[in-house]
Design a protein that fits this description.
Blueprint: E1 4-9, H1 17-30, E2 34-38, H2 42-47, E3 50-52, H3 80-92, E4 97-102, H4 104-117, E5 121-125, H5 141-162, E6 165-170, H6 177-186, E7 190-192, H7 200-212, E8 218-223, H8 229-240, E9 244-248, H9 260-278, E10 284-289, E11 292-297, H10 298-303, H11 310-318
Parallel strand pairs: 1-2, 1-4, 4-5, 5-10, 6-8, 6-9, 7-8
Antiparallel strand pairs: 2-3, 10-11
C-alpha cells in the first residue's frame, strides 16, 4: 500500500481538471496517505514546485475551469537529464507514485518516465478533443462541446439575419469528435473533420444550390485538422459568391465552468485512479466505455489511435 503519492496536470487545460484533482487529493487523504501537488505539470517536477495538499487545498475548485495547480508544455522533460532531475525531486519527498492528468502528449511523457525509473504511474485522460484511445470520454470534452453548441446557436442567429454562410473553426487536429458531435447537435449544414474526404468545391456547389432553393443561411463546422479554416472560408466565398464570414473558436473552448458530466465523471475517475495507485496498481489509465469505468493499459493508450464512430459520421452526412 503506497502512502505517499503526487498528482499533476499537464498539457493544455480543460474544464473538469480541478474536479479530478479534488477527487484524487481527498481520496488519498481519506485513505490516510499523503498527497503532493506538482505545479505547472512536468516543469514543476524538474523545478521542484511540489507542495503538500490537504482537504482545504482543493476546496472551492470543483466548479472552476482550468487547473489550480497550473499546467505547461515542458521540452526539458523530453530529455534524459530533465527526467532524471524530476525523479530526484520525487525521491527527495519520498513520493512513491503519481497520478497524471492530461492528453496524449502527457500520457506519452508519463509512460517514458515510468518505464525509465520503474515509477508507478496512473493516468486520467483529460483533453477537450476526446482523442485518447480506449475511452469514450475524456475530461473537458463535454463542456467544450456545449461551449461550441452555444456559440453556433448565436452564430446561426446572425447568419440568418444577414443571409450569410458562416465557417466555424473548431479544435480537432487529429480527431474530429468535437466538431462532429457539436455540429450534429447544432444542426450544422456541413461538418468537415480529418476522418472524412470532402471536396470544398463540391460543398460550395451544394451551398449555392441550397441558397438558390430558399435556404437563406448556412453553418459549416471545420475541425482544424481538416485544413486551414481561413482558406476554406475564402474558397467557399469565391465559389458561391455568397456573403461568407469566418469565426474561429480557439482558447474559449478550454475555459469555463465544467458541466455536470465533466464534474461527476472527473470525480469518479479521480477517486478510482487514487485508489488504484495507493493499492499498488500502475501503468494504467482509467476511462469510460459504454458508460462504465474501464482500466486501459498505458502502453496501449500511447500506441493506438482513436477512430471516430462511423454511425456518427453517417448521421452527419444524412441529416445535414
Amino acid at each position: 500500500m503506497l502512502k505517499n503519492i503526487a498528482v499533476l496536470t499537464s498539457g493544455t487545460d480543460g474544464p473538469g481538471m480541478n474536479a479530478a484533482l479534488r477527487a484524487v487529493t481527498r481520496t488519498a487523504l481519506f485513505e490516510k496517505s499523503k498527497v503532493w501537488g506538482v505545479e505547472d505539470g512536468f516543469s514543476g517536477l524538474i523545478d521542484d514546485h511540489i507542495k503538500p495538499l490537504n482537504t482545504l487545498s482543493v476546496s472551492d475548485i470543483i466548479q472552476r475551469g482550468g487547473t489550480f495547480l497550473g499546467t505547461s508544455y515542458c521540452p526539458a522533460f523530453e530529455t534524459p537529464q530533465g527526467r532524471q532531475k524530476a525523479y530526484e525531486n520525487l525521491q527527495k519527498y519520498g513520493i512513491e507514485g503519481m497520478v497524471v492528468i492530461g492528453g496524449d502528449g502527457t500520457m506519452n511523457g508519463a509512460k517514458v518516465f515510468g518505464d525509465e525509473f520503474n515509477f508507478p504511474i496512473v493516468g486520467i485522460p483529460a483533453t477537450i478533443e476526446n482523442d485518447i484511445w480506449g475511452t469514450d470520454y475524456t475530461i473537458g470534452c463535454d463542456t467544450a462541446a456545449n461551449t461550441i453548441v452555444q456559440a453556433l446557436n448565436k452564430l446561426r442567429d446572425t447568419a440568418s439575419s444577414h443571409r450569410r454562410v458562416i465557417v466555424v473553426g473548431v479544435a480537432g487536429e487529429k480527431y474530429g469528435w468535437l466538431s462532429l458531435i457539436s455540429g450534429i447537435a447544432s444542426g450544422a449544414e456541413f461538418i468537415l473533420v480529418p476522418e472524412m474526404t470532402c471536396d470544398v468545391d463540391d460543398i460550395s456547389t451544394r451551398l449555392k444550390e441550397r441558397h438558390q432553393n430558399g435556404k437563406t443561411y448556412s453553418i459549416v463546422v471545420v475541425a482544424d485538422g481538416y485544413g486551414d479554416v481561413m482558406q476554406i472560408g475564402k474558397q467557399i466565398a469565391e465559389k458561391t459568391k455568397l456573403d461568407t464570414r469566418i469565426s474561429v473558436l480557439d482558447l474559449i473552448l478550454r475555459g469555463g465552468s465544467p458541466t455536470v458530466e465533466d464534474r461527476v465523471k472527473a470525480s469518479q475517475l479521480g477517486e478510482r485512479a487514487a485508489l488504484a495507485l495507493l493499492s499498488g496498481l500502475y501503468n494504467i489509465v482509467f476511462g469510460y466505455k459504454k458508460g462504465e469505468i474501464v482500466t486501459i493499459d498505458l502502453n496501449d493508450v500511447v500506441k493506438n489511435r482513436k477512430e471516430l464512430d462511423k454511425d456518427l459520421l453517417h448521421i452527419a452526412e444524412v441529416i445535414a
